[in-house]
Amino acid sequence: MKSKKWAITVGVLGMVLTGSAGVYAGTQLETIKAYLNHGLAIEVNGQKFTPTGEQGKKLAPITYQGSTYLPVRSIAEALNTEVKYDSQNNKVSIGSTSSSGAPTTGNSGTTAPSTGANTQAQGVKSKYLPADFPLPKDAKTISLVENVMDGKKKVSLTYSTKETLTVLGASYRDYYQNQNLTQNVQDLGADDFSIVGRADGKFAVSISGSSSNINEGDNEVTVVWGEE
C-alpha cells in the first residue's frame, strides 16, 4: 500500500527546481544529456495541467535515463504545497515550516482532529468529502483523486500527519458511530487502524492508517469514500 502512495511523493521530491538562476551557481553540478518530453500529458487531481515558469512560460518534463522529472515549483503550487529556494544555502524546502525553520508539527497527539472547514482549508482541498469529515490540523495531501461517476461523487485521499494513530482511529470511530451504518468493521490499534463502513443507498467508506516508512514520526491515512 505504502509503495504506491509514496511513489508520487518521491517523484515530486526528485523534480527539477525552476525559476531561479542561482541554482546553477553551485559547484556540485554535473553535465548530462537529457530530453524535453513534449509528448507527456500531466493531470493533477484528474484535471489537465500544464507546468509554467516565470512569466507564464510553458515548461516541458525532462526525461533522463528512463526517469521523467517535473518542475517542482509549478507542480507544488498545483498541489497547494509551499516551495522555497534558499540561494544563500543552495537549498530547496518543500512544505510549510515554522519561523525557526523546523517543519510544522501540528497537533501534539492529545486532542482529536479538528473537523468541518478543514476539508476545504490548510493541507487538504477536498471538494466532495463531507464538510464535517474529521481531518487533523496538520494534514498534508500525499495524493487526492476526486471524480463523479454516474452522477455519484468519489474520493480517494491519502494524507500525512503527526497526529497519533490512536487519536485518529478514535476520531473516525466516533464520527461514524451515529450514522446508522449497516456494515461497520473496525480494527483500532496504536500501530495501525482500519474502518470500513456502509450506509445503504448513501455512501461507502474505507479508512486505514499506519506509520510512514519515509518520514519518521509521520503517520499516513488513506480514505476511500463514495456515494451510492
Automatic annotation (TrEMBL):
Residues 94-121 are annotated as: Disordered. It comes from the Bacteria. Residues 1-25 form the signal peptide. Residues 95-117 have a biased composition (Low complexity). The keyword Lipoprotein does not apply. InterPro entries: Cu_amine_oxidase-like_N. The keyword Signal applies. Residues 58-95 form the Copper amine oxidase-like N-terminal domain. Keywords: Signal. It comes from Paenibacillus amylolyticus. This is Copper amine oxidase-like N-terminal domain-containing protein.
